[in-house]
Input
Amino acid sequence: MIFLSLTNKNIDNPKNVISAGINASSQIKTIMKFKEMNNINKTIFLIPNSNFQEEVEDAISQSKIKLKHIHIYETNPMELTKQIEKITMYQIRKQNLIDEIKRLEDSNKKNKEWKINNLKKRDTLGGINFDSVIVSDFEEGLKSVFTSLLYTDVSPQRIYYITLNQWFDESFLKEESLQPLYFPSINKENYDEFIDNYKKIYNEHPNQLSFLSYDLMGLVYYLVYQNEFKIDEKIFFKKNQFKGKVGIFEINKNRINHVLNFYKVENREFKKIF
Output
């Protein structure tokens, strides 16, 4: 017997369990498309030391995404800040600024006061060796990482801030200092429509699992129909596609992946990129 699970985990599942959640592999493949569209070549990937670390590392390996470096960080705020400082070479860039101000003060250059005053408005001086960062965290943990990046003078105006599926967490709309923020996700229009219909019928807000469950019913019917209404282990083994509310389901060798959309948070709204 085959079991369909709403989990997004792919590793260590029993052989007869097929994961149908929005897995890390599907999300990373969508990020790869965005990277290619924008010629993003120097990406670092930040993964929290947590129970889903192995899942993300496996997805990175499976997708073959090109990365400059992978960093595993501690979720403790004090340790996190120190790690981000090291990753961004914050102390070096901070010292560069101090040294440059001192050099100008000791020089005879024209307009040196103007230059010094401009430098004193800055926090650091010098470039960083990456153009984008992917953070595989959620809610307050994710905000802590991006806040630490801001503290080290690495803002979303300097690099691309990218994360995994946030299910359109509206708390990020208020975090203007973290915008633009990019992420792969399900189709928002379909999601909003499903929420509205669910509220009308059940008078309560649906959770994410109910949205996935809705599509799974259609997926199973479609595959059974394609198999001439014969239910056997082959229906999830053959390569196939199904377009649902979430997006496109890709089925192959008892594995389900999703073709996702890509969004950004900017100016207090979610904007679809593709």
The first strand starts at residue 3 and ends at 5. Residues 40-186 form a domain with the Rossmann fold fold (CATH 3.40.50).
